[in-house]
UniProtKB/TrEMBL annotation:
Coiled coil: none annotated. Its main location: cytoplasm. It holds the Pfam family RabGAP-TBC. This is TBC1 domain family member 7. PROSITE patterns: TBC_RABGAP. One of its GO terms (molecular function) is GTPase activator activity. GO terms for cellular component: cytoplasmic vesicle; cytosol; lysosomal membrane.
Length: 294
């Protein structure tokens, strides 16, 4: 479908006078009135535009399958989700896996393990391993974004499950993609990373497995998760790429791999919105822009 020239003119005008996103918000509201909801159009919208904060959690819940496409069933299904949450919580309390002092993120982990049938015996409970630490990092970030604990658990569970189901086979290949795009954008930096031995030690494994939870503040992170939840793990590559490009001068001045890793594991938090915006632009540059959803 060709873009509407009149709509493009209006969008350019709104952006010029400081009302960027006015048209997009209206488009999303139209999509959300459909019954059943069109998941493909919602995904396309989320790929193309940042979700308005007032609709973000609702759209995530629909795209992750927590709520069904039929809007008239949302209230009933929401009640079922709450009942299931309470049942799992009570079961873990009775089995003494959790109590009133257990951190909420660890409660979510035990709930997830119980539902996934991998709950360890109480006597065998060990400190969280790498996979569990990834889950806990995502949980801590989601908890900052979502206020309601029931919604928070379901979003964590379905986000993690969808991520591993859809993208599990792709994650090991993302570092190679990062190297490729870095060679296109800044070959001098790539050569510096290779020559210092830092390329293989970059924390991109952590970034990709945790979808940047614990690396970016939640205000920036949720814009990245819009793209992941709506069907793209490639966005993670471009966020990593833009982090490297944004701190190119700093990285070029460091000659020890451990120094680079230390810096990249604690990047400044005040510039992350600009990094994510530029990353999304790079993603669209190399991967194209989905057609308009409405």
């Amino acid at each position: 479908m060709a873009d509407d020239p009149q709509r493009n003119f209006r969008s350019a005008y709104y952006e010029k006078v400081g009302f960027r996103g006015v048209e997009e918000k209206k488009s999303l509201e139209i999509l959300l009135k459909d019954n059943p909801l069109d998941l493909e159009k919602l995904s396309t919208f989320s790929q193309r535009f940042p979700l308005p904060s007032m609709y973000r959690i609702h759209v995530w819940k629909v795209l992750l399958g927590i709520l069904p496409p039929h809007s008239d069933s949302h209230t009933l299904v929401g009640c079922y989700r709450k009942e299931q949450y309470q049942d799992i919580l009570e079961a873990l309390e009775i089995m003494r896996y959790i109590n009133s002092f257990t951190p909420s993120t660890h409660v979510y982990l035990r709930m997830f393990q119980l539902e996934s049938q991998v709950l360890p015996r109480c006597s065998e409970t060990m400190p969280p391993d790498e996979e569990n630490e990834d889950f806990l990092s995502i949980s801590r970030a989601m908890e900052e974004i979502v206020d309601d604990p029931v919604d928070c658990y379901w979003l964590i569970k379905c986000f993690v499950n969808q991520f591993h189901t859809k993208f599990g086979d792709s994650i090991p290949h993302l570092p190679k993609s990062l190297e490729h795009y870095l060679s296109q954008e800044e070959p001098r930096l790539l050569n510096h990373l290779k020559n210092t031995g830092a390329l293989a030690q970059l924390p991109h494994g952590l970034w990709f497995r945790r979808c940047f939870a614990g690396c970016l503040p939640e205000s920036s992170l949720q814009r990245v998760w819009d793209k992941v939840i709506s069907g793209s793990c490639k966005i993670l590559v471009f966020v990593a790429l833009e982090i490297l490009l944004s701190y190119k001068i700093m990285l070029m001045g460091i000659n020890r791999p451990e120094g680079m890793v230390k810096f990249l594991c604690n990047i400044p938090q005040e510039n992350t919105d600009a990094i994510v915006t530029k990353a999304i632009d790079l993603w669209h540059k190399y991967c194209g822009t989905p057609m308009h959803a409405v």
